[in-house]
Structures are given as structure tokens and as C-alpha cells.
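Students often ask why inverse folding is considered easier than folding. One informal answer: many sequences map to the same fold, so there is more than one right answer. In these notes we will look at a single instance of the problem. The structure comes first.
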């Protein structure tokens, strides 16, 4: 039986109430690129009606100027092209529900991060969305400890490939370049991210009318 976004939001509210005033409740939503994480995070925030904001990992992309300087433009989006130390530091601040915390966003028109574009204030829930929340690599392995719960949004590789190809086309890539980027970069990256699936608290799969849920008993 599928659950709706509103039902998922009620689950988040219950978990946040259990935490109480100890700290902001940080829910992580991760999974491969093209799985629909950003859309799910936005819909959850809407359902939570002002009690939550989205804290996207993509705001911690290294700026294009930095990537050009280190010769990493072609690898943009890979784990080492993010400011992971800054991401972890801001997550630690975000847990403190007594302070306002500014958060950067990634501007898809500028193709660059914009500093302090979102401000967390009275919100007691942060929906932290990004590819590498469960990545077991230096720097990234510190992320999980800052999150109260992590959901993994799963999708078939064929679905991911088609969505990413169309995303590249919308971004102005030629059909040949789009296919090359999917096969050479996007899908290998998706497989890297999938290694963290079994460390998630829940695994969600989109279906007609909502999401199927699998609880990972091994992490409880």
C-alpha cells in the first residue's frame, strides 16, 4: 500500500515532536541523481506548512571559478567538487534551534551557488536533501551523525538514465553529449550513491499515488 506525501509529513512531525526542544529535527533525503529528491523535499516542506525548510546539499557546490582553477569543471557534481567541511559545519549549526542559520542554494540559471539565500528561523524541521548524505568517504562520513533520520529515494537505473538525459537536453547539451554524460558520469555516480542504500532508515520508491516504504531493520 502506498503512502502519500501528507502521510510522510505526519511521520516527520511525530519524529520531530519526539525530539522536542532538544534541537532542530534534521531529516535527510538522499538517493541517486534523477530519483526525485528535490521534488519530494519541496512537497514535504509544503505539507509541513511553514514548520520546515529545505536545506539542499547543492548549495555547497564549489563555485565555477574554483573548479576552473583546479581543473575540475568536467567533474562538477562529484564528491570532491563540494565544500563538504562547510556543509558539515552548517549542519552542526542547523541543529541548534535557538539560532537563525543562513543556508546557500544552488542557482540552476547561474550554475553557481548563492550564499545565504535561505534563512532558518522559527522552523524546527530541516529537510536536508542531497546525493551524498550516506557516502562513506573522508569528510562525507561526518554528515550522517548530524541527521536524525535519513530516507533513501530509490529508482530504477533506466528511469534515472532517461530523466538525466532529458535534464541535460533541457540544459542545452546536444543529444550525443547528453548520452555521454549519463553513461560516463551520471550512472557511475548513481551506483556509488547506491552503496549507502542499506544504511538509510527508510527506502522509498515512488509509485502511483505515493510511495512504497521499506524500513531498514539493520540500522535500528
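Output (designed amino acids):
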Amino acid at each position: 500500500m502506498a503512502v502519500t506525501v501528507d502521510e510522510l509529513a505526519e511521520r516527520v512531525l511525530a519524529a520531530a515532536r519526539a525530539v522536542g526542544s532538544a534541537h532542530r529535527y534534521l531529516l535527510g533525503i538522499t538517493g541517486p541523481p534523477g530519483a526525485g529528491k528535490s521534488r519530494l523535499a519541496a512537497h514535504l516542506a509544503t505539507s509541513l506548512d511553514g514548520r520546515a525548510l529545505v536545506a539542499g546539499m547543492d548549495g555547497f557546490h564549489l563555485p565555477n571559478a574554483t573548479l576552473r582553477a583546479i581543473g575540475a569543471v568536467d567533474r562538477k557534481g562529484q564528491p570532491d567538487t563540494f565544500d563538504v567541511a562547510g556543509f558539515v559545519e552548517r549542519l552542526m549549526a542547523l541543529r541548534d534551534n535557538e539560532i537563525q542559520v543562513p543556508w546557500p542554494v544552488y542557482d540552476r540559471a547561474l550554475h553557481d551557488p548563492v550564499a545565504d539565500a535561505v534563512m532558518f528561523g522559527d522552523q524546527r524541521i530541516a529537510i536536508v536533501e542531497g546525493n551524498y548524505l550516506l557516502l562513506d568517504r573522508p569528510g562525507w562520513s561526518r554528515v550522517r551523525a548530524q541527521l536524525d533520520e535519513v530516507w533513501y529515494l530509490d529508482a530504477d537505473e533506466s528511469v534515472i538514465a532517461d530523466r538525466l538525459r532529458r535534464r541535460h537536453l533541457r540544459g542545452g547539451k546536444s543529444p550525443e553529449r547528453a548520452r555521454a554524460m549519463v553513461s560516463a558520469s551520471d550512472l557511475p555516480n548513481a551506483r556509488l550513491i547506491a552503496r549507502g542504500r542499506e544504511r538509510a532508515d527508510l527506502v522509498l520508491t515512488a509509485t502511483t499515488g505515493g510511495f512504497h516504504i521499506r524500513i531498514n531493520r539493520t540500522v535500528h
